[in-house]
């Protein structure tokens, strides 16, 4: 079957989601108000709270949430066949991820840009907030440790990505300064993307590697250390100087890359000869239900997005109505990356290997992973556009590295926020310090990155961390949807459109996490078992607190808060007059 049909199915679904469903949710459920004064304007400290053009913020938000996960997840999940992956990516993006991301951004903006953890204190209670923050912190540790191993692996496998990946940092700083000085955004974007692609060309002809074993941990371990040194410094800089412009220019580069990839599909029209449903899965393969829904997290639904929406994006949103553009469209952008990954792996890469599916995927976690997207996507671009495969391969490797790197930047910053919040809550002065809190965050990530190993070399445990990340990620997504639902109930608004996806993903995430607890217990992977059990216990306690609040709302013990609706209606009436 031609891959064009896969692409059309996904893009038509995304279009309906954007033009129809997201508009309904934004106007009828969240009721986004253009007259509401956002925290970016109310606080505007020039560091974290900065009113930002919605296109710049979309780029920053998109790349912060995307990372490498919408590539790695689908590249693993197609082992079951491309149909289950395609359906979950499409429907998950439209009915789950977009609603979740826009809702988290809106709810946080309405509460002074508080993080999801702090926001739960207002909506559910202080005990729930303390538990929420534990889940969030553990997820961030998983994300940062796993993405560091992914970046390190890519830099070793694709040394041509090293120069452009690091060259993107000074490019981002210059762009940040120029945007700060109100230079023309379009001109700055064109120049920035052009410089970035020129660096990709340089990288494709001059691959680079580390000069020796710097820290005595092998090339992968050395890169992990260097990446956390960079991310720690970046997380303490003002958002406008590095994080925001780096994310924005990476987003622009990704848009160009996606356009090249999608148009290459229509030019080359590769066939997808991989199985729609794999009839020959290995005996140790996890069950399709429920593991599919935690294997493809980012790219369909991801609790990490709620952390970014409430942790950084809500501090920069200039107009509340931008929440639809930034949140929902950001989720669809990530879905489009997952969609083209399915095509690159099951179409171009599979056809190029000339082998059967079982040879390409010898097992569930023995597939090509993100390298499959890079290699398959490069073949697709080269076939469709005639671009040298070395350049195409470098372009896609840089895309993966930059995405994962920007996620680490945002993730460490968010970890620092949580540690500092704990310092304020428990009056521990040393935890409030930027440097101390950042070092603690990095230490937790390094312990996991080097503590979980497949036994090959230091820092090779990314595939082992992945299922724990997926389960924790989706449990947090369910908790975030539950929080949004309760907030809507407090406002007297219908919550069924949020409760339905919440219940579905909650069942799938708990089912999957229980399966993996047994699996990791049998393999004596005690660190992973501990994290999984801790996340499940804390999430159950949060749910009990939430049920108590919902019961009190229904009985009238907690009065509804209709002030937001009244304010919005009054503003609308004034505008009409």
Automatic annotation (TrEMBL):
Q: Cite the Pfam families for this sequence.
A: CstA
Q: Which GO terms describe its biological process?
A: cellular response to starvation
What does the entry list under GO cellular component?
plasma membrane
Enumerate the subcellular locations listed in this protein's record, separating them with semicolons. Cell membrane
Record's bilayer topology term: Multi-pass membrane protein
Instruction: Spell out where the chain crosses the membrane.
Output: 6-26, 55-80, 86-107, 128-151, 157-178, 185-203, 223-243, 250-268, 288-308, 328-352, 389-412, 433-452, 464-488, 497-518, 524-544
Recite the UniProt keywords alphabetically: Cell membrane, Membrane, Transmembrane, Transmembrane helix
InterPro entries documented for this protein: CstA, CstA_N
Q: Does the keyword RNA-binding apply?
A: no
Q: What residue stretches are annotated with the CstA N-terminal domain?
A: 3-346, 384-512
This protein's record includes keyword Repressor: no
Q: Which family does it belong to?
A: Belongs to the peptide transporter carbon starvation (CstA) (TC 2.A.114) family.
Q: What is this protein called?
A: Carbon starvation protein A
């Amino acid at each position: 079957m031609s891959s064009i049909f896969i692409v059309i199915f996904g893009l038509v679904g995304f279009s309906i989601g954007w033009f129809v469903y997201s508009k309904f949710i934004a106007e009828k459920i969240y009721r986004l108000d253009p007259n509401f004064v956002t925290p970016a304007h109310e606080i505007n400290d020039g560091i974290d709270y900065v009113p930002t053009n919605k296109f710049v913020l979309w780029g920053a938000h998109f790349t912060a949430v995307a990372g490498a996960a919408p590539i790695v997840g689908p590249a693993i999940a197609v082992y079951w066949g491309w149909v289950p992956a395609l359906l979950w990516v499409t429907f998950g993006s439209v009915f789950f991820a977009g609603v979740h991301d826009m809702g988290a951004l809106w709810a946080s903006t309405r509460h002074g840009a508080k993080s999801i953890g702090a926001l739960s204190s207002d909506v559910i209670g202080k005990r729930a907030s303390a538990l929420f923050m534990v889940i969030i912190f553990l997820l961030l540790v998983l994300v940062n440790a796993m993405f560091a191993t992914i970046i390190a692996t890519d830099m070793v496998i694709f040394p041509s990505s090293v120069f452009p990946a690091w060259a993107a940092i000074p490019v981002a700083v210059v762009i940040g300064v120029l945007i700060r000085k109100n230079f023309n955004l379009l001109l700055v974007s064109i120049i920035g993307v052009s410089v970035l692609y020129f660096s990709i060309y340089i990288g494709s002809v001059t691959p680079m590697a580390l000069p020796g074993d710097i820290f005595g941990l092998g090339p992968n371990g050395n890169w992990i250390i260097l990446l956390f040194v960079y991310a720690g410094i970046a997380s303490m800089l003002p958002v406008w100087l590095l994080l925001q412009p780096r994310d924005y220019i990476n987003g622009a580069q990704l848009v160009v890359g996606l356009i090249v990839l999608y148009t290459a599909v229509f030019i080359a029209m590769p066939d997808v000869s991989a199985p729609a449903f794999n009839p020959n899965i290995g005996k140790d393969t996890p069950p399709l239900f429920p593991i599919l829904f935690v294997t493809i997290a980012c790219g369909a639904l991801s609790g990490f997005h709620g952390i970014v929406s409430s942790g950084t994006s809500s501090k920069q949103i200039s107009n509340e109505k931008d929440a639809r553009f930034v949140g929902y469209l950001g989720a669809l952008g990530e879905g489009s990356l997952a969609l083209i990954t399915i095509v690159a792996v099951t179409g171009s890469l599979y056809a190029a290997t000339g082998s059967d599916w079982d040879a390409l995927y010898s097992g569930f976690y023995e597939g090509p992973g993100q390298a499959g997207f890079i290699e398959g996507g490069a073949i697709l671009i080269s076939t469709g556009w005639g671009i040298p495969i070395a350049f195409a391969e470098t372009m896609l490797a840089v895309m993966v590295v930059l995405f994962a790197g920007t996620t680490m930047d945002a993730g460490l910053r968010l970890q620092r926020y949580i540690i500092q919040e704990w310092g304020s809550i428990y009056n521990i002065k040393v935890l409030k310090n930027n440097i101390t809190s950042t070092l603690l965050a990095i230490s937790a990530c390094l312990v996991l990155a080097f503590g979980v190993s497949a036994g090959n070399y230091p820092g090779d445990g990314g595939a082992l961390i992945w299922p724990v990340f997926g389960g924790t990620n989706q449990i947090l997504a369910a908790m975030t949807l539950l929080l949004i639902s309760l907030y809507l109930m407090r406002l007297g608004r219908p919550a069924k459109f949020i409760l339905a996806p919440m219940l579905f993903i909650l069942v799938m995430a708990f089912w999957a996490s229980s399966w993996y607890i047994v699996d990791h217990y049998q393999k004596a992977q005690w660190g992973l078992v501990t994290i999984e059990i801790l996340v499940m216990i804390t999430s159950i306690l949060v749910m009990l607190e939430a049920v108590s609040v919902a019961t009190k709302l229904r009985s009238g013990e907690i009065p509804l808060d209709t002030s937001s609706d009244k304010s919005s209606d009054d503003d609308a009436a004034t505008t009409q007059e």
